[in-house]
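The following record pairs a protein chain with its ligand, alpha-D-galactopyranuronic acid.
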Amino acid sequence: MERLFHTHVIRKSQTCGPMWTLTTLDPGGLPRPEKVLVPGVWESHPALRRYRGRGVYEQEIVCGGNVRFWFGGVSFRACVLLDGALLAEHYGAYTGFEALAAGLPQGRHCLRVEVDNRFGEDSALHIPNDYYAYGGIHRPVLWEEVGDAYITRCDVTPVLTDGGWTARAEITVRNLSESPFSGAVTLRIADSLEEVKVTLGGQESRAFACALRCGQARSWSPEDPALYEAEAVLSAGGKPVDDWIDRIGFREVRVEGRQILLNGAPLRLRGFNRHEESGSFGLAVPVEAMMRDIQLMREMGANCVRTSHYPNDPRFLDFCDEMGMLVWEESHARGLSEEQMRHPLFMEQVRQSTREMVAQHRNHPSVFIWGCLNECADDTAYGAACYAEILALLRGLDPSRPVTAALLERPGGRVYAQMDVVSINIYPKWYYDGPVEEAIARKRREICEQGGGDKPLIISEIGAGAIYGCHDPLGEAKWSEERQCEILREQITAVLDQPDLCGLFLWQFADVRVADEWAMKRPRTCNNKGVVDEYRRPKMAYRTVQELFRGR
Ligand code: ADA
């Protein structure tokens, strides 16, 4: 399933069967086509552990009429063909996309997805980096039969007024036919219902607005994550023709002075950075493992997670909604210099990741803040202009959430004043010596000088490495579990002791594989700063974090 609940009752929607035929096209691939499981990354196949190249996935589907395929995530270039005709192309592993085939004759059709994870000139965001750029169809694929008019989106924003909650909605309807469409769309949330007339010209797509009073709705919060179904039904001539079901929660996020308020109460963040990766499954994290990750983080006393450094699987966000885990979600981009930001495709690829993230995930109540451009060149005029544009894009797409960006610890930052919440990544005791308090104080001074002193401040990364099973009873050797515990103790205590900080996201929840090009900086070709290793075996730091997080 693409989500953790049914998204359609009227529309015929199903997941493509799990077995696909994979043919690899480049050296180091498979000698002959093989059956593989989707979702999955090809690195899970023992023979393709280090394959970087092209792979063709094929499957036969019996369908007809207007068929809408939905790809939750393909890493990281995709080209979709049906019976040899091109339906869609997509760049970027971490957001979904549609491929539409209109007016198909009923019968067997060959769906072919050409996937490519080679680095190259056309890729500004997927580059050799401190996490792995996997290959494959790593999230579910759906196929749906739709009529000429169907719902493509339903955005719901909870608004708190004197009389309680109101749900403001925009429902986008698309008409595939050349002739005009006229009908109605109804939106139902709990006991409230609202109907809006829909008229569309030939081949037009448009959003229709409505507002539902949901005065009695319970608020969503980490302690009581109350969820509601929002069901939009499109009808023509009084008959239902399509539907769109999502889950929403009523909560308000606001910045006031140096605090982030959730339903009026200040947030104290104690959480983790987490890459979407799990042991031998790579980027195709099974749902069972997603849920367990949240349980592990919760058991350590965390109340939030940052989806570093890209949008995550919507099922992970569904779990967070359900379990009351707050989420910082960010669009894709990590650690790019000004030169890399000047890549001719850089901005367009970041804009696309940002637009798709907000369009696809805005209804998740757990997402309390949007982020972008982790550790890029915020210290140059050109870089700062890129930040300004993407922060403005985020605000324009969704004015209901604050925006931020996790910035590298270095002097000369120019974008603090442009963010609703200032966030910094710092590694005292790991990359350099000196007291943690001093590192924070130094950063604070700079932020104040650059116009960000009156804003909330989050330590978006702080942490230390340890190789699972590596011990030094004296606690002196870096990479030992003992030393990691010591450093994390100092870092966490220093941050949580400062009441005017909003809190921290530890770097990181679990060890992750990194690009081969990073191997000389990263033992085991992994980023080993996890509190658990890539198989979720707890390091000694698990208990340390638990003691410190739970004690607050
Ligand atoms: C940065 C970066 C992370 C990771 C981390 C580290 O802050 O944002 O992706 O690379 O450093 O481990 O050094």
